[in-house]
Amino acid sequence: MTTIPTTTTPTTTNPEDVETHMPGAIYAEGLVKTFGDVRALDGVDLDVPEGTVLGLLGPNGAGKTTTVRCLTTLLRPDSGKAVVAGLDVLRHPNEVRRSIGLSGQFAAVDEYLTGRENLQMVGQLYQMKAKEAKVRADELLEQFNLADAADRTAKTYSGGMRRRLDLAAALVVSPPVMFMDEPTTGLDPRNRQQLWEVIKQLVSGGTTLLLTTQYLEEADHLAHDIAVVDHGRVIARGTSDQLKARTGGERVEVVVHDREHIPTAAEVLAGFGKGDTSIEDHTRMLTVPVTGGAKLLAEVIRELDARGIEIDDIGLRRPTLDDVFLSLTGHVAEVKDEEPGAAAGAAAKDRRHKKETAK
Amino acid sequence: MSAVTDAVRIAAPGNPVTQSVRDSLVVAKRNLIRMSRIPEMVIFGLIQPIMFVVLFSYVFGGSMNIGGTTDPAVYREFLMAGIFAQTVTFATAGAGAGIADDMHKGLIDRFRSLPMARGAVLTGRTLADLVQTALTLFVLAVVALLVGWRTHTNFGEVLGAFGLLLLLGYAFTWVGALIGLSVRTPEAATSGGLIWLFPVTFISNAFVDSSRMTPWLQHVADWNPFSATVQACRVLFGNPGVSPSDAWPMEHPVWASLIYSVLIIVIFRTLAVRKYRSATA
Fold first, then answer.
1. Residue B146: is it exposed, middle or buried by C-beta count within 10 angstroms (0-12/13-18/19+)?
2. At what angle do helices B120-146 and B16-37 cross, to 10 degrees?
3. How many of the other CB atoms lie within 10 Å of CB of A318?
4. Which of A52, A108, A233, B62 pairs as cysteine with B110 (C-beta 3.0–4.6 A)?
């Protein structure tokens, strides 16, 4: 994929799309959904070309799940247009359901049914014949490494196995369009890696995928294109590289050994930086945006050394999607409450904990 | 991983009625498998009515005046229709809790994203509950026979009475379905599904002679849909204590029971299916 240094704005469409006038496998225009006086979706526009992966990135409560629910016929938007697999979602919901697979935030499997029974049931409800559903269940169990556990109830499965079973259920009819809502939330790093492999294989087979995530790393890893959502709107869109380019490139990060050296170090960095130096007192870390790469880094080190500042760590850092989010929204990928009325403090604490363990 | 992307052929949409029946049976099968894997649920569902039979017939029997006699044996025969009817209505709570649990776990979202008949998830659930109710009734009838309950009519009439009981139970599971879809947690569905059953089953002719109630209360009891089924059962079993009230449901209990149950099914099924379509976990 070529990285065009571009000033992508949310409304800019791909040149190819303009030429052909063909909406993508997933297309949304001006989706609005309000719950009481909360505007969960405030005009969401999306266009996912066939065979690509769009990562919908944003904090909790940004509108990711609501978007997925609107596109998968679970929720009727107040206004706007949605087309999935060439079908109008509002006018032909049942036809759309035949062409999509959904894997939600929870592993939606019946825990008292065995893996095999779960998949057979879903197959039959996709209107497959009982025999076909059985054959398909066997195939999927094999593919998702669940053959050994096929006849155990899902209750006995580990978190990762349940997610795999859930994903398998979403793939029973090999739908051309897939939706995954935070597929790896709550999984440990090893299981997350495994699931990423499964998703990559799936996409390499040509499935169009819309994936929501609050893990910036995940979007970076899996998605061709990223749409950043905040407050029910897509606030930026582009490839991971394009988004990173927008935030102004590289930065130098320095951790000084001695807290007393922070002011001097800040002075040194100010001389090299292309912007304000940010200082984190408790970690003794200074960060400054720069241009000039490794050569500049060497100069910074020499200068710090000349001034007698002992450093614990120094590095040149390319922006992460966290930085992208910060520069786009003016706030970090902060955690807000999904449900109004729930104990905000406790929930936020819980999420923060999750985020930490995710990294 | 080519097999993932090899399109699996989906059957073309067939006759909507056939699809609805088929999908409902698939869901019913799922719920029956669940029940067989959680036998505790079925067993607890049995213990409660059996306890009621024993407690009511031995504690209350002897102090209850039924048709001018306080003979405990008479009360025991009187009581059974009431206990049977109360037992079938308690299936409401199970249906509600089950559906609320499915919502909570995201299963309802999964079902709603599948190209299946809209009412099938609820119909499948209520059908499975009907099977459980029938099983409970059977065991309860055996216990009732053991403590001295007898019928004094022909086999067809007795079967008819059990038919009416099952229909009432089925109707009430639709009320449970609506409750389950309306609350946030399975726990709320359990208590919400039970609370209102106490006035419904007690302000009736089920456990006491309703003609001895205060006039306005007796009026409520006479027109209570639940009383109609109890009265119908007493008539069809040939058990004592048939209310002499001239309220229409008491004079035509079999018809009243049928009409009430069908009405409840029509109203609550419509409401529940509508609620299901817009259900949000």
1. exposed
2. 50
3. 12
4. A108
Given the structure tokens 């069908």, which residue do they identify?
B262
Confirm if B239 and B78 have CB atoms less than 8 A apart: yes
A168 within 8 A of A197, measured Cβ to Cβ: no
d(CA A233, CA A139): 40
Collapsing DSSP to helix, strand or coil, A129 comes out as coil
Q: What are the pLDDT digits (tens) for B126-147?
A: 999 999 999 999 999 999 999 8
Residues in chain B, total: 281
Helix, strand, or coil (residue A29): strand
Mean pLDDT of B217-245: 95
- Measured CA to CA, the distance from residue A73 to residue A87 in angstroms comes to 12
Predicted-assembly ipTM surpassing the 0.95 threshold: no
CA distance linking residue B112 with residue B103, whole number of Å: 11
CB B167 within 8 A of CB B258: yes
Q: What distance separates the 2 farthest-apart alpha carbons in chain B? A: 80
Residue of B nearest to A93 (CA): B115
| pLDDT, greater one: B27 or A267 | B27
DSSP A23: -
The residue behind tokens 């309950």 is B149
Query: Hey, where are the domains in chain B?
Result: 40-104+128-279
Distance between CA atoms of B192 and B179, rounded to whole angstroms? 7
CA–CA separation, B221 and B210 (whole Å): 7
Mutation to test the A interface, candidates B25, B105, B113, B125, most A Cβ within 10 Å: B113
Which of B2, B6, B10, B24 is the best residue to mutate to test the A interface, defined by the most A CB atoms within 10 Å of its own CB? B10
**Which of these, B239, B21, B34, B29, lies nearest to A114 by C-alpha position?**
B34
Contact B40, A156 (CB under 8 A): no
pLDDT of residue B13: 59
Q: Which two tokens stand for residue A157?
A: 């499965």
In this predicted model, what pLDDT tens digit does every residue of A143-165 receive, in sequence order?
Answer: 888 999 999 999 999 988 998 89
Q: Which residue reads 């009383």 in tokens?
A: B227
Contacts with A, B 76-105, CB within 8 Å? 105
Structural tokens at position A49: 């070309």
> CA–CA separation, A7 vs A12, rounded Å?
9
For CA atoms B133, B134, B139, B144, give the dihedral sign.
Answer: positive
A132 contacts in B (CB within 8 Å)? Answer: 8-9
